[in-house]
Amino acid sequence: MTTLSRRVRRRPPSQRKAISSFPNALTTTLEEADPVRVYDSFVEQLDFAEFGIEIDLHRVGHSEFDPRAMLKLLINAYSYG
Question: At a CB cut-off of 8 Å and minimum separation 6, what does 67 contact?
């Protein structure tokens, strides 16, 4: 048994159904009028091909961040200063 496998252990089956202190989805904690919902719908409607950004979900190699998620994060960060 390697050092890593000794440290990383799976939960026993009885604990897998334990109640989490975090919500199942982030949308359950956001209000209907939250600006984040507007940023999300705005970015989802954009055509990234018009900007020269290729989104290939089946690309092989190093995983990269989704450009849509990064743009949402950037817009949200700029809106709050």
Answer: 48, 53, 55
**10 assigned to some structural domain:** no
Give Cβ neighbours of residue 42 (< 8 Å, ≥ 6 apart): 75
Distances (CA, A) of 35 to 4, 15, 44, 61: 42, 36, 14, 35
Per the structure, the count of domains in the chain is 1
Question: Does residue 67 fall inside a structural domain?
Answer: yes
Residues contacting residue 35 through CB under 8 Å, at least 6 positions apart:
76, 79
Among 51, 49, 48, residue whose Cα is nearest residue 68: 48
**Encoded tokens for 22:** 């975090």
Kindly report, residue by residue over 53-72, the tens digit of the pLDDT: 877 777 776 667 888 888 99
